[in-house]
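Following up on my earlier thread - several people asked me to post the actual chain instead of describing it. Fair enough. Here it is, all 128 residues.
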Amino acid sequence: MDYMTNIVAHHPWQRAISLKNHAIGSISVTPLDGNDVCRGQLGYVLASKYWGKGIVTEAVKMVASTIFVEWPHLERLEALVDADNLGSQRVLEKAGFQREGVLRKYIVLKGRTRDVVIFSLLSSDTRS
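Reply from S.P.:
Thanks for posting it. Predicted structure:
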């Protein structure tokens, strides 16, 4: 409950990923400020039981189709993915994100320094 009260309730843009009215994950966009105000960071989590079913891909596509309208100042949506997480990289590619490169030794996950792959989607990429 602390997580819901202290984190989710105060997050500027976070949604549940639901299946049959049951939350199975979440997706969020974190706005940046200052000189980075034109960018947002995409993040998502999904219960492992539901991996590989296209659920997160659909959620990311939904976010991509609405976030630039909801936040007109946003020009770029970014996502950072562990270099070994090929499934998550594929999700972003299917949703139209472009792989831009590898940030070496960028984060610590489970006690190990890890490389991440940066993906982006521009507002201009979503216009028909």
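Confidence is low (pLDDT under 50) at residues 3-9. That should answer part of your original question.
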